Amino acid sequence: MKNFVKEESPSCTTSGPCRLNKDDAVSQTLSKFFPPVRYKEMGTKWVKHVSAKQATPIEMTHVKQEVDRVLKVRCSRKAPLCVIREDVLSDLIREILRQVTIDCPEQGLLLRRILDHNEMEFNAYETLLRFTDAFVGRKWAEWQHWKADRARQISELEDTKRILEFQAAELKHKVDQLEKKNQEMKIKWDAARMEEIKYYKKTGEHLRAQMDASVLPNRKAAPQFPSGMMMIRDSGAVQKAGKNQLRYLKSAKLSV
Fold first, then answer.
1. Cystine design at 47: which of 7, 104, 118, 133 (Cβ 3.0–4.6 Å)?
2. Residues pairing with 46 in the sheet
3. Per-residue model confidence as pLDDT tens digits over 9-53
4. In a 3-state reduction of DSSP, which class is residue 44?
């Protein structure tokens, strides 16, 4: 509520200390909180002052309904921070400050301090919210980048895993083939070894039988000599039989 008064030059002829009554204190406090607005219209200078008249309950009810209607029309929200609600309620709180100041200027000063502190707190929360949105957006972008990078790494590792599994299967197949081949070669080598042993055993038995057959008839057909002469003849026969046996063994070995 504002009063329109024609601007006049100030005229104050009092000297010495000036004592203000309640009305003057209210007027000065209201002028401090709500500075007068000066403007010019049709060549006349006007000053718009705030009204020092207390509002009636009917007017306050009308103001409350008007505030609710404006908040609903402008689609304000209660949380987290709403600039529309701040704009609408700032006019309402200014009206409350005017009425409190009219009742008691000292309470008006205290309420003004509270409102200034509340405004500073609101600005701090608004700044924090703005930087929080930027921080959350940056972290969201970093998380999306990290997610895409991890998905790419997982895909690469899965491809590497499949390649290594395929290589491991190939190596296992080669190992199985080599073990099978070595086992077959071992069986063949053992069989050849056994055949060779059997052959040498049979050859040894055959040679032993031939040696016995060649030595025993000579012993049976040996003539009767005196004891000394027979020993000499027997030793010669033994040497001759031994030489024959060696020749036979050499020839048998060469034939083998």
1. 7
2. 6, 39
3. 444 444 444 456 777 788 888 888 888 888 888 888 888 878 878
4. strand
